[in-house]
Design goal:
nine-stranded mixed β-sheet, binds adenosine-5'-triphosphate, globular, alpha/beta, single chain, about 25% strand, 14 helices, binds manganese (II) ion
């Protein structure tokens, strides 16, 4: 066994059972990039970023994510379509097969931290088959100093082998790819998929168990930033709703773009050390911070190039709509260092409502906030394939059901308590359609959404008069600086008012139907936050 690079003197991959091969420990990004280029796995772009293809999978595969069911998890995990149980013996079998797979190969080891608040720090050792996956780990997690690397003690381990395939009949998986978390052994194994998001969301899933369950810290699928006066804002939302885009704001320091904790002493801390932004249709004009973050060290996934050159064509979605880039958070000019914030003042629930029903912004009562948090609604347009006219509706509890091992009420109760203690404003923001549903209306412009959020943050929006939405009961402002008033009430923007009422009713019914699963856990206040379906005339 050859082990090269920076590592603790007594550490060896032999501890994991890998006896033979060549392990590169904690290589600097430039060396990882050279490995990828030499292996023919990537190409440098004109701005110096490395562009790779993740292979068969260009997104997460929630149906292939398992949790080992044992005495730690049996009675604590909420077993459902996202938390699928797997027997410990199957895990052991796959683990041994993966170790064998690494045996004799060249591979990449990296030691990183999660959680910017040192009190909650998690030490993770990741073993990657590919150098570019190791670069992703470098970009996305907190990077120890060289000195810290020489005395690093891992608590969790991740084995990541995109080229390894499970045998479903023998291994108990659904198909050849899998992502399995074992809370007892503190191990995550990922095989058959090169999609890097599996690594990031594997760690997120672990933290979503450990922090609320064992440390009394609320873990959240949200971005966060902080204003000049030290006021923190957090932005919850499902994929594609705008967490990353809207948290990059030149007037506010970025804390993080996707995963945070809220401590008992009211600190907001980032779990990660980097950002993972969507790049579809990215433009310098609309998203300058993200556009300029894509440079040497950044890792682009599944993008295409303009013909015959090394300039990325961000509008090309031939490989996938989910083109991505990862970069260390300091590629963004205005960041909080360390990634912490105090004093959360505003919470935004982002939803991309492709039905065009929800107001561009509205204020929620505590009951409505809990109702919308547990519902976790968004509706997107499924890709841009020909013939797709209808938005697809998603309800994902806590705006992140695929990553939440505990019952949603655990997170919801913690959030409600924190919101009410801190007197936090909660806003529902529709980053989706306006003037009609997908097909008739159009996507809310980023400029308008940013203006609405800025007005909420400065307090100007609270000066407006508000009216209650007929169906959703949320408080809709009548005026907002920088935004035409007629845009604020969505019904005004539809030429066919009956069609609006009909769609609003339809969406309210969907909310109510979804909430049935949770209504036995909800108190009167939360139930009062539900929409009322309107009787048609
Ligand atoms: P994920 O959890 O997958 O990282 P996310 O919530 O971070 O998702 P973003 O990466 O911010 O989502 O994606 C929002 C996308 O929608 C971006 O591509 C952005 O350019 C686009 N967009 C268009 N209009 C708006 C708008 N009004 N507000 C926010 N985003 C918009
Ligand atoms: Mn994001």
């Amino acid at each position: 066994m050859q082990e090269l690079g920076i590592k603790p003197a007594d550490a060896s991959v032999k501890d994991l059972g890998i006896e033979d091969g060549k392990a590169y420990w904690n290589l600097p990004p430039q060396q990882l990039i050279q490995f990828a280029l030499r292996a023919g796995q990537g190409k440098l772009t004109n701005t110096g970023a490395l562009a790779i293809d993740t292979g068969e999978f260009t997104g997460r595969s929630p149906k292939d994510k398992f949790t080992v069911k044992d005495e730690v998890t049996a009675d604590t995990v909420w077993w459902n379509d996202f938390n699928i149980p797997l027997h410990a013996s199957k895990f052991d079998q796959l683990y041994r097969k993966m170790i064998n797979y690494f045996n004799g190969k060249e591979f990449f080891v990296r030691d990183v931290y999660a959680c910017a608040d040192v009190r909650y720090r998690m030490n993770i050792r990741v073993i990657n088959e590919y150098s570019w996956s190791n670069l992703f780990v470098h970009n996305m997690f907190l990077r120890p100093t060289e000195k810290e690397l020489t005395r690093f003690v891992p608590e969790w381990h991740i084995l990541n082998a995109p080229g390894f395939h499970a045998d479903p009949a023998e291994d108990g998986t659904r198909q050849h790819n899998f992502s399995i978390i074992d809370f007892k052994r503190k191990l995550i194994i990922i095989g058959g998929s090169g999609y890097t998001g599996e690594i990031k969301k594997g760690v997120f899933t672990a933290l979503n168990f450990v922090l609320p369950h064992q440390r009394n810290v609320l873990s959240m699928h949200c971005s966060a930033n902080i204003g000049k006066d030290g006021d923190t804002a957090i932005f919850f939302g499902l994929s594609g709703t705008g967490k990353t885009t809207l948290s990059a704001d030149h007037d506010r320091k970025l804390i993080g773009d996707d995963e945070h904790g809220w401590t008992p002493d009211n600190t907001i801390f980032n779990f990660e050390g980097g950002c993972y932004a969507k790049t579809i249709d990215l433009s310098e004009e609309k998203e300058p911070e993200i556009f300029h973050a894509i440079r040497s060290g950044s890792l682009l996934e599944n993008v295409n190039f303009k013909p015959g050159c090394d300039e990325v064509n961000y509008c090309d979605c031939r490989k996938t709509e989910n083109t991505r880039v990862s970069y260390p958070i300091d590629h963004i000019p205005n960041i909080a260092t360390p990634s912490l914030g105090l004093n959360p003042k505003n919470i935004f629930f982002l939803t991309c409502d492709a039905y065009g029903v929800l107001p561009p912004i509205s204020r929620l009562t505590p009951g409505q906030a809990a109702f919308h948090f547990i519902s976790g609604y968004t509706a997107k347009v499924a890709g841009t394939e020909e013939g797709i006219k209808e938005p697809t509706m998603t309800f994902s509890a806590c705006f992140g059901a695929p990553f939440m091992p505990l019952h949603p009420t655990k997170y919801a109760e913690m959030l409600s308590r924190k919101m009410q203690q801190g007197g936090v404003n909660v806003w529902l923001v529709n980053t989706g359609w306006s003037g009609g549903s997908y097909g008739n209306g159009k996507r809310m412009s980023l400029k308008i959404t940013r203006a609405l959020i800025t007005a909420a943050l400065t307090g100007e929006l609270s000066q407006s008069e508000f009216e209650s939405h007929d169906v959703f009961g949320v408080a809709v402002p009548k005026t907002c600086p920088g935004v035409p008033s007629e845009m604020l009430n969505p019904r005004n923007t539809w030429s066919d008012k009956d069609a609006y009422d009909h769609k609003a009713n339809f969406l309210a019914e969907a909310f109510l139907k979804n909430f049935n699963r949770f209504s036995s856990y909800a108190n009167k206040e939360i139930l009062s936050g539900a929409p009322r379906t309107k009787v048609h005339v």
